[in-house]
Design brief:
This protein has 304 residues and is of the alpha/beta class. The chain is built from 12 helices and 8 strands. The chain folds into 2 domains: 153 residues, Rossmann fold, CATH 3.40.50.1400; 137 residues, Rossmann fold, CATH 3.40.50.
């Protein structure tokens, strides 16, 4: 049996001219309104015209491959390389078993289903059926918890001259429409459980921390909260002078980190008389590779 690994992320464009098609994918085939397209393009331009997400994902795949000695490929759920083309390439290489690890530790089922659907399409076209070993939510993988706790501890050490009582940590994750959460999606409980594990890893002397949700959709509607803005307001009202944002729902730098936190949230904090910094993203660090390796090896051991 020949085994490979697919790590699957959200997706991003490398060329801003592809934004209309990319946003159409996110919007389930509906073209983006011109104001939305202009705003998203502005945000990409504000971080240099390109998200690093795809390049980071490729680096993660290469490092994980070197670590575990199996082929590792990157797929993206909403942009190239799509799961179907990645699986087709693995079939051409003689692979018949694929370990699927979502690069979205609290929404593994959504990403895993995208790979499963692609495998089903290929089988329906007469290609060989692939055996998939899908990771479930792995937000409380101990090495991942430790990586986030270490990032927060480093962020605190790099925040001098702020008394502990005047500093607050905001642990953030991407918001979801409330309708999704109310339908039974475990996302919110998974995020909060991860945050609790990270806080425990920081120890009893760790700083006060709150969980907030960021990057709500631009189309309005009811979204999971409290929002990052509400978290900033609560910190201001409590007399906090500095906020350390720890985006524990994200593994890598992307627009939601480089713009929504580094640009927008920092300006919002300044408007409230506070300073704001954030923890380093895990990106393709050894700490993230350790966590991914643990997830892959556990799946392989369980499969026998």
């Amino acid at each position: 049996m020949r085994t490979a690994v697919v790590v699957i992320g959200h997706g991003t464009v490398d060329d801003l001219d592809d934004l209309p098609a990319f946003l159409g994918q996110i919007r389930r085939g509906h073209p983006p309104p011109l104001p939305l397209l202009r705003e998203v393009r502005r945000r990409y331009e504000a971080i240099g015209g390109k998200s690093p997400l795809h390049a980071i994902g490729q680096e993660v795949a290469a490092k994980l491959e070197a670590r575990i000695g199996l082929p590792v490929r990157l797929a993206m759920r909403l942009w190239k390389p799509y799961p179907k083309e990645v699986l087709a390439g693995l079939l051409d290489e003689g692979v018949d078993r694929v370990v699927v690890v979502p690069l979205a530790q609290h929404s593994a089922h959504v990403y895993g289903e995208a790979v499963e659907s692609a495998a089903g399409e290929l089988a329906g076209e007469g290609r060989k059926s692939l055996r998939l070993l899908r990771a479930s939510n792995w937000g409380r993988e101990p090495s991942l918890t430790r990586a986030y706790a270490d990032a927060i501890a480093l962020g605190l050490r790099q925040t001098p001259d702020v008394a502990r009582g005047h500093l607050r940590v905001l642990m953030t994750a991407h918001s979801l429409p409330l309708a999704v959460v109310r339908s039974g999606d475990p996302y919110e409980s998974e995020v909060r459980a991860s945050a609790a594990a990270i806080a425990e890893a920081l120890g009893p002397d760790g700083p006060g921390a709150e969980v907030v949700f960021q990057s709500q959709g631009m189309g309005g509607g009811d979204w999971l909260g409290p929002s990052l803005v509400e978290g900033l307001d609560a910190a201001r009202d409590a007399g906090i002078r500095h906020v350390l944002v720890a985006p524990i729902g994200f593994l890598a730098d992307h627009v939601e980190i480089l713009y929504d936190i580094d640009v927008e949230a920092r300006a919002l904090a300044a408007d409230r008389g506070m300073s704001l910094t954030r923890t380093r993203s895990l990106n393709a660090s050894d700490a993230l590779i350790d966590a991914l390796e643990s997830v892959v090896r556990a799946l392989l051991t369980a499969a026998g």
